[in-house]
């Protein structure tokens, strides 16, 4: 039996008849004693956060919940719901669109911030060099700029909160310094490129010690709430098989003109 019991060995959950323990804590003790952000931290990190750390994590989970059907993931979830799929399938459809291009900027920004902090250079010089390298290859610096908002309204409350956390000693502030240095360099161009939600949440996740891969997972976790809400709303609407365009609009055709088959 030892080989079978070790097949899915885990340090996360200990389940037996009448007993559920998560990271060693009995579920009946956790219920009513810890918040959802604390539970997320416990499950992904193995320990309970401080109240201040949990409050920062909660801010990120609230901020990234939804961005309307302008977001392809939300539109896809709604289309799936209009095709009669159950809520879990509609949500999964939206989640599966969250990859490197749509949904991956937070993880990518965390990796950038880590590289700046670990570079051994003054953070301002490192940020200047990084932006120059991105410009040279025509790439976007992840976590900055937004296709919809001239200035992302979620940036300021998140960055204010992390600045206060630095001031009270909850976090060190090295990644805040790196993020603000990047923003300062990007503000000096022909068109200023302010930080967006991905940059702000990446800063908080780095300061809290999350791995970049978990940063993406936390974004997916947050956005799933929006996907659920939109899928449910669409589920309760009468329109069926709702595609990306209304029936009155046809995509522009760019192929050959009408022709006769030889």
From TrEMBL:
Instruction: Please report which protein family the annotation says this sequence is part of.
Output: Belongs to the citrate synthase family.
Name recorded for this polypeptide:
citrate synthase (unknown stereospecificity)
- Database matches in PANTHER family: CITRATE SYNTHASE, CITRATE SYNTHASE, PEROXISOMAL
Region: Disordered; residue ranges are 238-262
EC class:
transferase
Q: Which GO terms describe its molecular function?
A: citryl-CoA lyase activity
Q: Which organism's genome codes for this protein? A: Kribbella deserti
Enzyme Commission number, as recorded: 2.3.3.16
């Amino acid at each position: 039996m030892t080989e079978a019991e070790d097949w899915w060995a885990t340090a996360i959950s200990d389940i037996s008849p009448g007993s559920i323990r998560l990271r060693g804590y009995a579920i009946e003790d956790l219920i009513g004693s810890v918040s959802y952000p604390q539970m997320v931290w416990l499950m992904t990190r193995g320990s309970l956060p401080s109240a201040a750390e949990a409050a920062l994590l909660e801010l990120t989970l609230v901020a990234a919940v939804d961005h309307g059907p302008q977001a392809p993931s939300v539109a896809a979830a709604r289309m799936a719901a209009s095709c009669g799929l159950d809520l879990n399938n509609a949500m999964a459809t939206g989640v599966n669109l969250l990859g490197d291009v749509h949904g991956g900027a937070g993880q990518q920004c965390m990796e950038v911030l880590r590289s700046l902090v670990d570079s051994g250079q003054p953070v301002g010089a490192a940020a200047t060099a990084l932006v120059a390298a991105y410009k040279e290859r025509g790439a976007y610096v992840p976590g900055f700029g937004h296709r919809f908002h001239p200035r992302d309204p979620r940036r300021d409350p998140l960055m204010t909160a992390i600045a206060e956390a630095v001031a009270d000693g909850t976090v060190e502030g090295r990644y805040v310094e790196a993020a603000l240095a990047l923003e300062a360099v990007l503000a000096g161009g022909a068109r200023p490129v302010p930080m967006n939600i991905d940059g702000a949440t990446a800063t908080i996740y780095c300061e809290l010690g999350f791995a970049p891969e978990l940063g993406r997972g936390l974004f997916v976790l947050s956005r799933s709430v929006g996907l659920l809400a939109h899928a449910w709303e669409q589920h309760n609407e009468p329109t069926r098989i709702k595609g990306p365009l209304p029936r009155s609009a046809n995509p522009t055709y760019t192929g050959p003109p009408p022709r006769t088959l030889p």
